[in-house]
Amino acid sequence: MKKLMAANWKMFKTAQDAKETAVELVELVGELSEDREVVVFPPFTALHAAGEVFSQHEGYSFGGQNVCAALEGAFTGEISPLMLKDAGCTWVLTGHSERRALFGETSEQVGEKTTFALNNGLNVCLCIGETLEEREAGKLEAVISEQLEKGLATIPDVAPECLAVAYEPVWAIGTGKVAGPEEIVEAHAIVRAKLLDILKGKANTTRVLYGGSVKPENATQIIALDNVDGVLVGGASLKAESFSKIVTA
Ligand code: G2H
């Protein structure tokens, strides 16, 4: 199983910046190790520019940060899986905590998007994670179990490599506060056990990524932990120099 090294560029970068970062990234990484796969999530307006670069390099792919659970229609401001595929995307993120917290996405909606994207031929990275308040109230397992149950409730029968789950504790996102190794191992074990319930035999080959303040300085340790099959990186993926160090960690 290849480690999935994912970059979430959030609402950063013009098309030109994205292209320059993509060119620099593939140069700095050099020959991508066989056990690594890179997927980058640029903003919609930079998909084409970044995609032109990544599509020419083995082991790199790119995707959208959000998707609508409809193919087309009167949904102002939304983007459909057909449009993402038309732009060359093979992946999409669903359920990122910023979508849940700032745009009110519910776990049910995240589940609809996940199913719809998979049904329409996109690979999905489903993001889950608890807030600090939920963690302190002892609800870690309940929260991530519910997000997984609802997020994967109606997914089609797809190959395990088409789905990834990113565990991102909300309190570690963009805060510089990374979860400790024990906390990551504990949460990833819960995710894996829940995936076994839901996906049965496919659970062990479905990649579970860690996200939340991953940096070059902590990536090597995080990637080596039990049940960590890759990382989803925000801030430290914006500069090719730092993301290249994470990709090769
Ligand atoms: C979590 C993560 C990327 P950061 O949002 O999805 O961002 O690495 O900046 O904490």
Task: Please tell me about this protein's structure.
With 249 residues, the protein is of the alpha/beta class. It contains ten helices and eight strands. It has an eight-stranded parallel β-barrel with strand order 1-2-3-4-5-6-7-8, surrounded by six helices. Helix 8 (181-199) links the parallel strand 6 and strand 7 (207-211). Helix 7 packs parallel to helix 8 and helix 9 runs parallel beside helix 10 (240-247). It is globular, with a radius of gyration of 17 Å. It binds 2-hydroxy-1-(hydroxymethyl)ethyl dihydrogen phosphate (G2H). The site of 2-hydroxy-1-(hydroxymethyl)ethyl dihydrogen phosphate (G2H) has 13 residues, from strand 8. This is Triosephosphate isomerase.
Mean of residue pLDDT values: 96
Stretches where pLDDT is under 50 for at least 5 consecutive residues are none
For the CA atoms, what is the radius of gyration?
17 Å
Name the structural class.
Answer: alpha/beta
Distance between the termini: 17 Å
Main beta sheet: 8 strands, parallel, barrel
Strand content: 15-25%
H-E string: EHEHEHEHHEHHEHEHEH
Lateral arrangement of strands in the main beta sheet:
1-2-3-4-5-6-7-8
Helicity, as a percent range: 40-55%
Kindly state the number of beta strands. Answer: 8
Shape: globular
